[in-house]
Design a protein that fits this description.
With about 675 residues, the chain is of the alpha+beta class. Helix content is about 25%, strand content about 30%. The strands form eight sheets. The chain has a nine-stranded mixed sheet, with helices on both faces. A hairpin with a 7-residue loop joins strand 7 and strand 8.
């Protein structure tokens, strides 16, 4: 036998082993360093629940393409907002609309109109006169906005569903600010995305073939479509812009692991324009040039938030990053004479600070400071998200975040695993995704662990597919358990005081945890939890709204992720591992919160599990918001969710005691607590 290959193999194994060990040591050292920083901070004051329920006053802050105005919505209470416009050259803001239910404001290409998007309408509003029209969405003709038309001074691109007894068809329509309609295409296939040339003609289309693939097609001069790229459910993407040379820019993970910015040449060659320089995260947000619509700024936020300039934007993004180190940035580019850029800088509180950046002088000027939050919830008292990695029990490197109470000894605080929903989603360090529940728990004295278990998105395709459908009491759940044990082994959290909370799939993980890992998890609080994941997936495909979403085949997507709902044996195995099938094993305190009109997890799935527990003599709490959707939306239901959390955790893990409920909250609890566990005996 030739000993050389054996020796080389042994050396390779040794090198890999040493490299892996070095990575683990580096991860642990970085976690210790970050933990020490949090321990050295001043302790945070105890804040009221109302501080965490309140929403920031500003929303939809957006820069006009010419960089001359900033539009924004100001909360007026309830579902009402006012619309304001601030000139970037200086001067006072102008109130364009004192009251609207619009949730988003978008500029026309010429910067002279605003499009206001509401739940069931979109309206146009002239910057100078304040006049415009209203376009109804939904209704008999299912209509939704796709984009502001980049080829026209002021128009929208709208997709309409044409319902007929024979088959569905879709129409792409341009609607200008006067209501004039131009039909660009009618098609039997769902048009997911499109680009337009400088004359407003269709250039590229991305269509769903109705089975398992998306097609990217170029519009030929004769009006026919020619396929240039096809991807299946394991890949994803969206179109950014076409050029005069028939190049196509897109965001995608086509042919690669991580999602980034790509360019498709006319000859079919695909180039990677930008990917995460660290090689760890998918592209999260992208800023484009307001005139060419080519990619200019790429942001990656699945681990530690970082933004990078592309081409001419690189030195400016470097300057902005230097001005706001260790902050999550949002950057919008203005184009034209004297155009400003808009920069948002976010720390660990829900409110961003807004600045205008002059690309000529590279100077900054703060704006909208008067809308700074007046409460005590700010960066000084909020927890910072600490990204870290750990090695699961099967050797896979898994990601997560840790939040610690400022100034506390991390070894002496209770530890709560907060599991994200989906499961095809992820926790991230990102602007606009402030986690009020995590910050609320930290303020009550708990260390919070947010696992991005295998199967989570944001870390590349291989990571997302690594779960292989093992969503029962198996590999995915073990990642959560391994992460908790990793933190405990490194001196974070009191091993005798560990809880688990989560919503949707996260709620399912809660039920698994208190059922199958009671030696670790002493308490569970589950929001909208499916008690049988296999049943829920079948229901969603056959009856739920996700199964009927145009341009999206839920069954195919699940199959690609290892869940074949038509495989009776596989579904039986998943159901056999469900919390519902093992309800008799539950011996830890549990609270359930659900919405009576939940469109993702039907209320009967939650009440059936609660009734099963009750019939077995298992004490549990059940809070149902009768008109509630998948997640609580209104202030009192949101506060009710938080009250249940802090009451349960305080009773069993010893965090801060809850403040007494207000008369409104008490009335809400009196009406909607369907099962009352011992922790709430005095509430009703």
């Amino acid at each position: 036998m030739n000993p050389i290959p054996t020796l080389l193999g042994a050396l390779a194994c040794l090198v890999l082993s040493c490299s892996s060990a070095a990575t683990v040591r580096d991860d642990a050292a970085a976690l210790r360093a970050a933990t020490a920083v949090e321990s050295a901070r001043s302790p945070a004051p105890h804040l009221s629940r109302a501080e965490f329920v309140a929403v920031p006053p500003l929303s939809s802050v957006t820069l006009s393409p010419d960089g001359r105005h900033v539009a924004y919505l100001v909360d007026q209470g309830g579902d009402a907002r006012s619309l304001w416009v601030l000139p970037t050259a200086g001067g006072h803001a102008r109130n364009l609309l004192p009251r609207t239910t619009a949730q988003q404001a978008r500029w026309s290409q010429d910067g002279k109109w605003l499009f206001l998007q509401g739940a069931r309408f979109v309206s146009s509003l002239a910057l100078q006169s304040g006049t415009g029209i209203r376009i109804e969405l939904g209704g008999t003709t299912r209509r939704e906005t796709m984009m502001v038309d980049p080829s026209q001074p002021a128009a929208l691109i709208v997709r309409e569903e044409l319902r007929s007894p024979a088959r569905k068809r879709w129409r792409i329509v341009r609607i200008d600010t006067r209501g004039r309609r131009t039909v660009l295409r009618e098609d039997s296939l769902w048009i997911h995305d499109l680009t337009l040339d400088a004359h407003g003609n269709l250039q590229f289309l991305m269509r769903y073939d109705g089975r398992d693939a998306h097609l990217i097609e170029r519009m030929e001069p004769n009006g026919r479509l020619r396929e240039v790229l096809r991807w299946d459910n394991g890949e994803s993407g969206s179109l950014l812009a076409g050029t005069a040379r028939d190049e196509l820019y897109l965001r995608s993970n086509f042919g690669t692991d991580l999602k980034g910015v790509m360019r498709l040449d006319p000859d079919g060659t695909l180039h990677t324009v930008h990917q995460d320089p660290r090689g760890e995260a998918d592209l999260d947000q992208l800023a484009t040039h307001p005139l060419t619509h080519l990619p200019m700024i790429a942001s990656y936020r699945s681990i530690e938030a970082a933004s990078y300039g592309i081409s001419d934007a690189e030195p400016h993004v470097d300057a902005i990053r230097a001005r706001f180190p260790h902050r999550v940035l949002g950057i919008s580019i203005g184009a034209g004479p004297g155009a400003q850029w808009l920069v948002s800088s976010l720390g660990s509180s829900p409110d961003a600070r807004w600045y205008l950046y002059d690309p000529r002088s590279r100077g900054f000027r703060r704006i909208l400071a008067e809308f700074g939050r007046r409460s005590r919830l700010n960066d000084a008292v909020s927890a910072r998200e600490i990204p870290f990695a750990y090695t699961a029990s099967d050797g896979m490197r898994v990601r997560g975040f840790l939040l610690l109470p400022p100034g506390a000894d991390p070894a002496r605080v209770p530890l709560v695993a907060q599991v994200h929903g989906g499961p095809f989603s992820h926790n991230e360090d990102g602007y606009g995704r402030y986690d009020r529940i995590a910050q609320f728990l930290v303020n009550r004295g708990y260390a919070v662990f947010q696992p991005n278990f295998r199967g989570s998105t944001g870390h590349g395709r291989r990571y997302a597919l690594a779960a292989r459908g093992d969503f029962g009491n198996g590999r995915v759940q073990q990642d959560i358990v391994d992460g908790v044990r990793y933190l405990l082994a490194h001196g974070i959290g009191d091993a005798g005081r560990v809880g688990i909370v989560g919503h949707s799939f996260g709620g399912y993980a809660v039920l698994l945890g208190v059922t199958f890992q009671p030696e670790l998890f002493k308490i569970g609080v589950a929001g909208s939890p499916p008690s049988d994941f296999a049943w829920l997936m079948r229901w969603n495909v056959d009856e739920g709204e996700l199964g009927t979403t145009p341009g999206f085949d839920l069954e195919q997507m699940l199959r690609h992720n290892g869940i074949d709902i038509r495989d009776a044996a596989a579904m039986a195995r998943l159901s056999a591992q469900s919390p519902l099938a093992h309800a008799g094993m539950l011996r830890r305190p549990l609270a359930l919160v659900a919405g009576g009109q939940d469109e993702r997890v039907p209320i009967r799935a939650v009440t059936h599990y609660a009734a099963t527990l009750s019939s077995l003599g298992k004490p549990a709490t059940l809070l149902v918001e009768p008109d509630g959707a998948h997640s609580p939306g209104d202030p009192i239901p949101r506060e009710g969710y938080m009250y249940v959390l802090e009451t349960m955790l305080h009773a069993h893990l010893g965090g801060d005691a809850p403040e007494a409920p207000s008369s409104k909250l008490r009335a809400y609890l009196d009406r909607n607590l369907r099962l009352v566990g011992p922790e709430f005996a005095g509430t009703r």
